[in-house]
Design a protein that fits this description.
The protein has about 325 residues and is α/β, with parallel strands linked by helices. It has ten helices and twelve strands. The protein has a ten-stranded mixed beta sheet with strand order 9-8-7-1-2-3-4-5-6-12, with helices on both faces.
């Protein structure tokens, strides 16, 4: 019902964000070769600062806030941050690598009020690209199945750097067997742009997609075009419906376009949301950022964009991003 209210609210008005990713800590306990969304030294953002940002986002009318990173479970006061989201009536979500989960930690997340957790599992056996493997994480998944009161989604991947595409099918089958939902991601290139699948990867992608047919994403052809290396005709609402808030409290279009608009959240107003809602982004035809697309899709039918911007033209764009920025098929 809370999710449905958020959808209805989004249909009624375009003056507020629907989904925001916020970074409470940039540090991560892993070092996956394809990811540049982490470091091994950053201190956590002070709790009062994170909560102030959450309150600002709630004041803007945000429906869903997802904690990302880095690894958010490294933040020492994460439970209070989640509770602050719930106090403001915001859907509380988190993307984690799962390594730090234990039964007592899961129970604390239950009490804090977490609504949704996503874990990406990149392979069956750990390799030089990623240690986020089913072999390592399967016991954590069993703990979640036994203790979690929140929704759990397991994301598998195909594409560049993944040694065995069939691992994605194994991961998805295991996730569904434990009662979780499952998505599959297509790893994009270094600028978040198109990277078409090879024949073997496409076969696995189709098999996983057939396992997980129920999804809002089934109502558009965004992922199909990406798998084929084709562009998409859509209106990116980043900066309006979707925001990415870095650890410094700046608003960005997404993790792949950090620096645009690159302004403090503290001064971000409804007028800024409305302006960016109507701003066309030149990177959108070849974009693979599923979370932005699916949030934007709710408004595809209305409000043609009347201005334009070219993110990354001055070299501010980021490289390949974190789990949140994979192309996902539920």
């Amino acid at each position: 019902m809370r999710e449905l209210r958020g959808v209805v609210k989004g249909l009624v008005s375009t003056r507020h964000p629907l989904l925001v990713h916020i970074i409470p800590i940039r540090r991560c306990n892993l070092a996956c070769a394809y990811c540049n969304e982490y470091d091994d030294f950053s201190q956590p953002v002070p709790t009062d600062v994170v909560i102030h940002r959450i309150n600002k986002l709630a004041d803007l009318g945000t429906s869903i806030i997802t904690l990302s990173g880095g690894e958010p479970l490294l933040h020492p006061d994460l439970d209070n941050i989640i509770a602050a989201m719930r106090r403001r009536g915001v859907m509380a979500c988190m993307i984690t690598n799962g390594y730090l989960l234990m039964p007592d930690r899961i129970e604390r997340l239950n009490r804090a009020g977490l609504d949704h957790m996503q874990i990406s599992i990149d392979n069956v056996m750990p390799d030089e690209v990623s240690k986020k493997s089913l072999k390592v994480l399967d016991k954590k998944l069993q703990m979640l199945a036994e203790h979690a009161d929140f929704h759990v989604n397991i994301n598998s991947v195909v594409g560049g750097g993944i040694t065995n595409p069939n691992d994605a099918l194994t991961v998805s089958e295991r996730a569904l067997g434990l009662g979780f939902s499952s998505t599959i991601g297509i790893i994009h290139d270094g600028s978040g742009q198109l990277k078409p699948l090879g024949a073997e990867e496409r076969g696995v992608w189709d098999k996983v997609r057939n396992l997980t047919r129920r999804s809002y994403s089934r109502f558009n052809h965004f992922q199909e075009a990406i798998a084929n290396g084709q562009t998409n005709d859509w209106r990116c609402r980043a900066g309006g419906r979707y925001l990415y808030i870095c650890e410094n409290g700046l608003v960005h279009y997404c993790s792949q376009q950090r620096g645009y608009p690159g302004v403090p959240l503290s001064g971000y107003l409804t007028a800024d949301v409305k302006r960016e809602f109507l701003t066309e982004k030149s990177c959108s035809p070849s974009c693979t950022i599923s979370c932005v697309h699916q949030v934007s899709y709710i408004d595809h039918w209305r409000a043609p964009q009347t201005s334009s911007v070219t993110p990354g033209a001055s070299g501010h764009g980021a490289g390949h991003g974190a789990d949140a920025e994979l192309v996902q098929i539920r």
